[in-house]
Design brief:
The chain is of the alpha/beta class and 441 residues long. The chain contains 16 helices and 15 strands. The longest helix is centred in the middle third of the chain and has 15 residues. The chain is globular and about 75 Å long. Belongs to the threonine synthase family.
């Protein structure tokens, strides 16, 4: 049997001393074996996933609310909680997105303290993936990689291509061939090598594992996954800071691999551990599309395993049929008295429209799924109206316009004359505009 390697305290001779002492090892989430801080993601002993281990005693002495607030207006204000060893991190302005206090959506749902964490405006590519990629590529550069890659349902490819271009790294990204045009163009503009694979995400991911092994590239969500996934913690850190250094009562977030869900939880735990916030039990609820809901099914059936499924939903950005962190997401939902629900494609479209018409936020299908599940949980009495609830919107609707085409009406076509406008205005006040396919005046 292969023996676990001793944990390394540094990755190279030029490491920043403060973060070198904070970063301890890669540790297996299942058996606890520790490994050097290299490009590795699977335990050699039990094949469990690896995650970064920190020295929280050193963190307590290194950070405070004041030092964080004095940091850059990006995810790197939390750099001591992130797995980068030097000051040479990649900062493209990612993070510190708005935490919007909802009024109209809250009233529509009957909630009193609803907040929207809006990563639809995250930089540079309008999704939360910019967070994880900034961290992964910063670490990739420290480890000496010159070519970076990913397996993606769209948003991750956009982020990897964009941030690699900024960092001067060679980039090759892999996507399912049937992705939305906005996401394909949103990668090609940065001039990566883009591989459109005939198959679903899980097939893409399997191919990428083979490529990573044969070419030695840095795959952000494969061999760099322990570092990459830590970037999602910043969605927890920011919410706590934006709420006045307090934790919410309940969060609702989308579930794809389950990693985002688990890392928001870890972020809250870390802030509590080092004394930045007062600890409390935050309820965690997750959202999936019915056409790809293996985590919701496991939660509903009280199973201790995830049964892979073949995705069939418009919510392509969260359509992962064999989620790597699915079981951990189920465990968190259970132990926090949360829930995991799924909604159908029609409800997802209504969720997109509901958020847009109440709060002026245009989200993609993952956000539509999350809002639809939020609504479903409220209607089922599973969210207390007085809870401070945060719903996470993780991507921008401009990337998935096909999903709502035909469901939001058509423009009123008029002549460039006042009387033509007046007739159209009168009709618009008496007809349900959503039923119009085209109006010619």
């Amino acid at each position: 049997m292969t023996q676990a390697k001793p944990a390394a305290r540094c990755a190279n001779a030029n490491l920043n001393k403060a973060n070198t002492s904070i970063l301890k090892a890669l540790k297996c989430k299942e058996c606890g074996a520790e490994y050097e801080l290299k490009a590795s993601h699977v335990c050699e002993l039990c094949f469990g996933p690896l995650e970064v281990k920190y020295d929280y005693d050193v963190l307590r002495q290194s950070v405070s609310r004041e030092t964080i607030e004095a940091g850059p207006n990006s995810i790197w204000r939390y750099r001591h909680f992130l797995p980068v060893a030097t000051e040479n991190y990649i900062d493209v302005g990612t993070g510190m997105t708005p935490l919007v206090r909802s009024h109209r959506l809250a009233r529509r749902l009957g909630l009193n303290k609803l907040y929207i964490k809006n990563d639809a405006v995250n930089m540079p590519t309008l999704s939360f993936k910019d967070r994880v990629v900034s961290v992964a590529l910063s670490r990739a550069r420290e480890l000496g990689f010159t070519t970076v890659s990913c397996a993606s349902t769209g948003n991750l490819a956009n982020s990897t291509a964009a941030i690699a271009a900024h960092a001067g790294l060679d980039c090759c990204v892999f996507i399912p061939a049937d992705l939305e045009a906005g996401k394909i163009l949103g990668s090609l503009i940065y001039s990566p090598t883009l591989m459109a694979v005939k198959g679903n995400y899980d097939q893409v991911n399997r191919l990428c594992s083979e490529v990573a092994n044969t070419h030695g590239w840095g795959f952000v969500n494969i061999n760099l996954r322990p570092y990459y996934s830590e970037g999602s913690k910043t969605l927890g850190f920011e919410v706590a800071e934006q709420l006045g250094w307090e934790l919410p009562d309940h969060i609702v977030a989308p579930l794809a691999s389950g990693s985002l869900f688990t890392k928001i939880y870890k972020g809250f735990q870390e802030f509590t551990e080092v004394g930045l916030v007062e600890g409390k039990k935050v309820r965690f609820s997750g959202a999936q599309a019915e056409g790809c809901s293996p985590i919701a099914e496991a939660f509903r059936e009280n199973r201790d395993f995830i049964k892979p499924v073949k995705p069939n939903t418009i919510a392509k950005s969260i359509a992962i049929g064999n989620p790597a962190d699915g079981l951990y997401a189920v465990e968190i939902a259970k132990k926090t008295n949360g829930n995991i629900e799924s909604v159908n494609d029609a409800e997802i479209i209504e969720g997109i429209k509901l958020l847009a018409e109440t709060e002026g936020i245009f989200t993609e299908t993952a956000g539509g799924t999350t809002v639809a599940v939020l609504k479903k949980l409220v209607e089922a009495g599973k969210i207390d109206p007085d809870e401070t609830t945060v719903v996470y919107i993780t991507g921008n609707g401009l990337k998935t316009q096909e999903a709502i085409q035909g469901y939001v009406g058509e423009p009123l076509t008029i002549d460039a004359k006042l009387d033509s406008f007046e007739r159209a205005l009168e009709r618009s006040r008496t007809l349900d505009r959503l039923e119009w396919q085209q109006v010619l005046v």
